[in-house]
User: Fold these one by one.
Assistant:
Number 1:
Amino acid sequence: MSRSHFTLAALATSAVAGLDVVGTQPFGSMGHGDFDAALLTARDGGHWIVRVPRSEKAEAEQSADLVALRALSTGVRSRLPFAVSSFAGQVPIAGTRAVVYEFVYGSKISLDQITPELAASLGEAAAAIHALPTSFVVDAGLASHNAIDGHREAITLIDRACATGLVPIALQQRWEHAGAESALWQYTATVINGAFGSDSVLAASDQVTGILGWHGLRVGDPALDLQWLLGCTQPGATDAAFDAYSAARGQIDRQLRQRATLLSELEVARWLLHGTEVRSTSIVDDAVEMMSALTDDAQLRLGSSISDSTIALTTDELENLMDRSERAAG
């Protein structure tokens, strides 16, 4: 049963000393999703978000988010061209906890709303994250994976997916070729958000104003933060994102876009493996259908490699797949 925004407001006043709430409204879909959440207005005009997890997965995500927010010190945040929320307080409730954050201003976006101008801002935002010193992530005890780790994980995923016998031959050859292509994996691991996507971005006037959801913060493959931008539908948007990123970071990772393409395709492999692990025919069928769509692409039929390919899932496929893969990971 979902908690009303009035109940959440009361919890927030218990969590944050001196918080005087004069207005409250639901934030997101009450009774649905991973959290019960409310937007609060304080007497001084400030705004706050209070969230209570509705599942063990959401609780784990919230805990990881708090660790990341504490690691993002004032000095680290000053290097970013957008706002990051701050932890304000918490209070126990029914075996879990309500957590209050400062509200970050901006509007949520979807892939089909990303203009070339906003895409460029997203590329710059990702570049700013990736330029952060890795030391603060390591000092916080967060995960750190180098290029060898990333390469090994991808090969293991490809091998496991192909072992199901459900991956089309053309797609199997494409993935295996990418796994064996050493140049694709010659990158320097950076700080990454790890959960970067349309659900985590706040924007106004085609500029990124804030990024939410830092539970995936770690050192890893920068392509992981950019793969979702391959699903932009407005002409020129994806190019604008990668061009802006390269302008900010320099040509230090010449295979970035190609590796992002592979990682986006391997989300289908993750979904397939999740379906086989939980013995869900519907999930397996869904993954097989997606792989067939990839195989049907003209370039793939001609045997193109990841290195010279622009194949990408459609907007709906990519957004839905990311959501489903996150649930599977939980």
Number 2:
Amino acid sequence: MVGILEIREGKGRGPRAEGCALLDLPCLRAEIPAPPGLSPARLARRVDKGARLLARAGVRRVVTAAEFPWWEVLYSRGLRPVEPEDFCQALAVPLALAALERCGVPPRQGTVVLSGPRVNRALLRTAEGLCPMVRRLSIDVPDGGAALADWLWREFGAAMADPEAGKRADVDLRFGPAGGGGRVELDLYGPRPELGGFVLRPPKGLEAGGLDRLAVLALLWEEGRLDLEKIRILPS
């Protein structure tokens, strides 16, 4: 089960947990009352109590507000965040197209580089999706990149480019801590992906409230409650 932990301004004796749902996905919500004047130390103890309530109920992953300063408390109770990396990498193709549009470059004239330490499934899927769309695609990946570029050339006849050929890419999609550089750079990895000035908006009618929007979307996508096609990619 997934938990939700929220700090609520106002009076209250202590944390309480109750069932709720995110787009029909059952969750357990723990509310932490934070009356005016509550000291940081006492608030941290309340967060710890809420974390214990969730952990005892079988919760292992938790969604919080985006700027949540008590993750160490949650980690100590065996709770961890919903990681958005897979979700962001699954959106790599539409993110690249949105970045090209913002640069004023039609896809058929655009250059995209895929970078990272190694070829993974998401990078391969992105390469397959972009090859028929863009003018030039390069693979800047030390582990397996050359083999992937050769295969893409044979399979798609894509205009594969050497990432060191001197032409700066319009878009650099990074699947790990490495990069060839581009006019727009998107880090699609780690606990806080950097999406090059874009934000991912939920479909109309689905709002995250005060929760971390990216974590909520990633969770619903993982659980099969949300189609990628319904995600809106907008400038921040």
Number 3:
Amino acid sequence: MEAISRETMPWQLRTRTLELGRRTLVMGIVNITPDSFSDGGAFLDPEAAVAHALQLLDEGADLLDLGAESTRPGSRAGSPGGPAGSAWAPAVSADEEQGRVLPVLEGILKARPNTLVSVDTYKAATARAALKAGVEIINDVSGFAWDAEMASVCAEFKAGVILMHTRGRPEMWRAQPQLAPDELLATVRAGLAASLAAAAAAGIPPHAVVLDPGYGFGKRFEENYVLLARQRELLSMGRPLLAGVSRKSFLGRTLAPLHDGDDAPIEARETASVAALVAAILHGASIVRVHAVRPAVEAARIADAVLAGGREL
């Protein structure tokens, strides 16, 4: 029987290097938005967002991911630039995004100066402002595809980067055609390879990059399970993996028979989120991005123990 295992690899950030793979790192989500699918509006106030971030750290989060624009299905995230208010403008401008993120970032780093903070943005201007303010990581859901300046900004600051595979823009996701399993994996692999090539062309070294398969980002409901079951195949690309499955719609759809045929609401997806998280770890994820930190920390310890047992076989 083949033992399950996870290779250790360095992740070079701006001021420090993390060894990924020895244990799973838990990334706590702080949504500074009025409309995120999970907790939109709850932490739009900077003081509330900082308090929530500190609570996530107290619950065991290894790092935090701050996001100020929703990328839920159907949103205008990633739309090409255009006049404010036009159909071609992103829903949240770079200035508005920075106005939400920077006060929260400042509050977190003032209270906990050594906190590892990532900013979830696809806009180079926001990335630059956040990096100047002290973030270590830029988490680009477009994998450097939506802003031509993003890769060079990350290279300039020697930032750690998370590059996600996204199939089209959020407004297109509901109309994506179904892919066969091999075609799905090939599509994700090709997209991530293109992101790695863009990083290399900008001068970002491979050891600064973590890859994210992009669960829910342009994948039809059942395709997410195919991707989760075969996630380990992406490790052949040579970089650690981050998995973000927390509270995603595909989990709610699977639970529908337990909710009178309707997709399980957000608040009823936590157990399913933990189950998917454990599957992601056992299939090679080194980082998990979550809304509820304490259950994730506990689940990750068990999954890591299983991986450790596998190494003993």
Number 4:
Amino acid sequence: MIDVFSDITFVSPYFLSLLILIPLALLWKKRKGKDQKIHLQMPDLEPIKSIRSIRSTVFPYLNILKAVSFVLFVIALARPQLTLKEEEVKAEGIDIMMIMDISSSMLAQDFKPDRLEVSKKVAIQFVDKRPYDRIGLVVFSGESFTQCPLTTDHRVLKDFLDGLQCGLLEDGTAIGMGLASAVNRLKDSEAKSKVIILLTDGVNNSGYIKPMTAAEIAQELETKVYTIGVGSVGQALSPISRRSDGRYVFGMAKVEIDEGLLNQISEMTGGKYYRATNEQNLEAIYAEIDRLEKTEMDITTFKRYSEEYGRFLSIGLFIFLLEVVLRHSIFKTLP
């Protein structure tokens, strides 16, 4: 990217080299005109030399319109950007991995419409409050995988969160696998502070990595783990089986969360365990974590850019179409 004016930059400046085609085309046309010059004896046109129509006056400028549209197309290809704003902020300097349980029990309807939808919505609200942090997402049920690596592109992260659904993985609750995946994503982080937020509604019952083993690794890497147990107290309308067509069958089931394990993981790593029995509880928990994890670092400068290629492309297209219409209508010439 190179500077052209104080506020304009080009992402792909090498396309500007195409502008050399304009003088080359003019040179070629001039040379071709000389080669095709024909000498004929004509009557004296001196008496009508001063008579000029609008058509004869405007016609030579059609080639200029074509050249201008070409220049605008080339500029659009080079992707001009305008620096809208340069701001200095105190960034938090925190890397955060969010771990979301997507086992079938997250469809329990003690939250409205269910635990998963509420958890997704509140997590997205939390992301919106951390504009300068790198945040990633790990999901788990009977196994785990990284849905989104650490990123500052929160729009992409929120799209991933919004698209989460149960049934993507083998069912179960592999808390250790989810935690291990998140720790692995943070092991090479150079952030001032590393945080994991683990949200689940069940008891560890699958996976080949024990939750406390993953917690010990997190402790070694100085990664703080906040754990959240999601679910009401007593019983809740939950999936109890699944039909052959993939639809879940719901029935009343006991809410079981291994609070002892989640509390142990948090205490070991310097975090905290929370229990969310409704949406308001969950919002308050994320708000508290947001307040706790504020670590200011050196001032960082951010530049925001506005893509301008669309403006050049649309004007160039208009001029090109105008030239085509004029040349084939009002200024049409015989072969």
